[in-house]
Design brief:
This protein is an alpha/beta fold. It has a domain of 234 residues: NAD(P)-binding Rossmann-like Domain (Rossmann fold, 3-Layer(aba) Sandwich), CATH 3.40.50.720. It has a seven-stranded parallel beta sheet, with helices on both faces. It has a three-stranded mixed beta sheet with strand order 7-9-11. The chain is globular and about 65 Å long. α8 crosses α10. It contains twelve helices and twelve strands. The mean pLDDT is 96. The chain binds nicotinamide-adenine-dinucleotide (NAD) and thymidine-5'-diphosphate. The site of thymidine-5'-diphosphate has 12 residues, from α6 and β8. The site of thymidine-5'-diphosphate (TYD) has 12 residues, from α6 and β8.
Length: 357
């Protein structure tokens, strides 16, 4: 028998947000055993967790959540008390070229984890035993906004991309397992994250990488789409809070109160990079290139996160200025990490995504 107070499975812990969540839990809760299960796709990288690798309360299992027999076996052997589910295919552009991969991991993989949780937790009483299936999701399930308004927890789902459709489906399954089988679940829907260790297919790290190498900065359409940006460590702290405090069956929105038009954000990154690289101001913005718009491109995401603020006094703690500064410094100081992830398959991906635009 384990001496740990809780035995927690975190899926997708080698990815961008997952690695921050794993790090927070391993360091903050030595009384918990944290098991990170990750397939190590192109987006998963154990180098993201090198600083906690040897921690006594941390274990890594390489595996695929789509493989139900494997997942059932791991659950019955490990008897987890809780699951924090982050494993996913997470990039909208990839979902447009390869939607089935998103159905498999985001929908089927999630249902495999729900089934496995139900099997081991049904044996006892689920409600009074601190069991919890925490599902990490996105604000993209709500669709798109015009210039007014915000997504609340009551906004009807209206996904437009294969990515957001697959995440919406997974959220519905999680709620269905709560409502139908009494599985204790919590869902959080968060806005765009940024910070260290993000794969350079997403806007901010892609721009940092391209500015550094004097490559074009591909801005989709007119660059007028708006996203709400949250520093990844603030997202991890919201997950920590909700994991410990939210009631079973609840849903919370998490956001940064920090809306930016893409073009303004790219210009800001150019300015920061010029300063950090000692280039004359205006050098990097010459790299901005307007390219063909993303198909089905949602215009604006904006989150009303007053519920988590009211219930648990959570608010973002890192300003965008500070968060971007830290993020740029991390990428500039981790050249080897960046070089490694942009070699191999990435080159093929980049050509495929951007040569036609
Ligand atoms: P990511 O792409 O950086 O990481 C995903 C991780 O999941 C990788 O480590 C990958 O190896 C792993 N994985 C993928 N398929 C798997 C499979 N079949 N089995 C096991 N592991 C698998 O993603 P991220 O940006 O860290 O996002 C994590 C979660 O947060 C996702 O569920 C995403 O939908 C959600 N989310 C992301 C954002 C954002 O801005 N990035 C915002 C809100 C919510
Ligand atoms: P992204 O980081 O892919 O996140 P998401 O699509 O989940 O919001 O994109 C953020 C915004 O930036 C989105 O409106 C699309 C846009 N974008 C570009 O203009 N150029 C790019 O090369 C990328 C990757 C994104």
């Amino acid at each position: 028998m384990s001496d740990y107070k809780k035995n927690i499975l975190i899926t997708g812990g080698a990815g961008f947000i997952g690695s921050h969540v794993v790090r927070l839990f391993v360091k903050k809760y030595p009384e918990y055993l944290i098991v990170n299960l990750d397939k190590l796709t192109y987006a998963g990288n154990l180098a993201n967790l090198s600083d906690i690798e040897g921690s006594p309360n941390y274990e890594f299992i390489k595996g695929d959540i789509n493989d139900s027999a494997f997942i059932d076996k791991v659950f019955s052997e490990r008897n987890f008390d809780a699951v924090i589910h982050l494993a996913a295919e997470s990039h909208v552009d990839r979902s447009i070229t390869e939607p089935l991969a998103f159905v498999m991991t985001n929908v089927l993989g999630t249902v495999n984890l729900l089934n496995a949780s139900l099997k081991i937790w049904n044996k006892g009483s689920m409600n009074d035993s601190g069991k919890l299936f925490y599902h990490v999701s996105t604000d993209e399930v709500y669709g798109t906004l015009g210039s007014e308004g915000y997504f609340t927890e009551k906004t009807p789902y209206d996904p437009h991309s294969p990515y957001s459709a697959s995440k919406a489906a997974s959220d519905h399954f999680v709620r269905a397992y709560h409502d139908t089988y009494g599985l204790p679940t919590v869902i959080s829907n968060c806005s765009n994250n940024y910070g260290s260790h993000q794969f350079p297919e997403k806007l901010i790290p892609l721009c940092i990488h391209n500015i550094k190498h004097n490559f074009a900065l591909p801005v989709y359409g007119k660059g007028e789409n708006i996203r709400d940006w949250l520093f990844v460590e603030d997202h991890a702290s919201a997950i920590d809070l909700l994991f410990h405090k939210a009631n079973a069956g609840s849903t919370y929105n998490v956001g940064g109160n920090n809306e930016w038009k893409n073009i303004d954000l790219v210009k800001l990154l150019c300015k920061i990079m010029d300063r950090k690289l000692g280039r004359p101001e205006g050098t990097s913005s010459k790299l901005i290139t307007f390219v063909k718009d993303r198909a089905g491109h949602d215009m604006r995401y904006a989150i009303d996160c007053s519920l988590i603020q009211k219930d648990f006094a959570w608010a973002p703690s890192v300003s965008f200025e500070e968060g971007l500064d830290k993020t740029v410094d991390w990428y500039l100081g981790n050249d080897e990490w960046l070089k490694k992830v942009v070699s191999g398959d990435y080159i093929h991906y980049y050509e495929q995504q951007y040569s036609q635009r």
